[in-house]
């Protein structure tokens, strides 16, 4: 077959494959748009507008990690889906999978640091916490560790030659390197990543369980203390006149007037509500993170074990391709979680929209 006929055949095959890939391209495009806008807002608000705490810095770093996935990884994925049989670049293939490995490990490290910081603040309030200055040093250190741990991805992935179904026409695609397709290295690599994520997730569940237990104990202790205060206000002693008892209430290390008890109770409730909501936000972020990665690992391990993917004409092809890219949901979901559950983030986001629309109305 001459070159012109080969190019024409590949062009037609590409167009046929494009029709099959349209749902996957649409999914990636939506994730790219929402993830870029949402994580851009997360980075700006949590780094510039929120309190300068270690937690907010970690959230901004996680937003940068997701933003890089949206701006560097997803566009190449869309191009490879559009020209699935004619687009291949060995450099971009290595870069794509290398950046995925870095993002996976770095996201796990940042989410782990957030959980540790929340645990120290809630369960160990009188001990030394992670300061913002220390967090500024921890983020680059985690990036260096992620970079080093991701180096094996360069050898695992690479060029692979596949048959197009037309006699005499083969193409090169980005997949597991031909030298490794029958080896055990890809299986070891993905099992290591999956084991690392599950290990971090297990520690997160233990930490958030301890946090919830500390909050519950704090609430029970507060109720007992307020009950003692109320009993002292209602039951004056024989040595003390009732009028004197109405003027002040005395408990160990605390002296206050009766009308301030309700104010103290409300202040405790507000603080408890804030702590509880903050912990719920980061617990949901951790849960979405691990859930969004599980379909990707399951589909990938199935491919490695069976040493083949899913045929394009199969009914399970589109679900398989969506499962391979399931972790994109983690990059998109976090801004919506903050927007729904974080009042301060929602207010700052509304201010940004007000400024944008106000400028447009001036022109």
UniProtKB/TrEMBL annotation:
Entry GO MF terms: G protein-coupled receptor activity
Subcellular locations according to the entry: Membrane
Keyword Kinase: no
Coiled-coil boundaries: none
Top-level division of the source organism's lineage: Eukaryota
One GO location term (cellular component): membrane
Record keywords: G-protein coupled receptor, Membrane, Receptor, Transducer, Transmembrane, Transmembrane helix
InterPro entries: GPCR_Rhodpsn, GPCR_Rhodpsn_7TM
Keyword Transmembrane helix: yes
PROSITE patterns cross-referenced by the UniProt entry: G_PROTEIN_RECEP_F1_1, G_PROTEIN_RECEP_F1_2
Chain ranges passing through the membrane: 20-45, 57-78, 98-117, 138-158, 187-216, 280-302, 322-341
Entry membrane topology: Multi-pass membrane protein
Pfam families cross-referenced by the UniProt entry: 7tm_1 (PF00001)
CDD domains: 7tm_classA_rhodopsin-like (cd00637)
Stretches assigned to the G-protein coupled receptors family 1 profile domain: 38-338
Family: Belongs to the G-protein coupled receptor 1 family.
Protein name from the UniProt record: Cholecystokinin receptor type A-like
Native species: Octopus sinensis (East Asian common octopus)
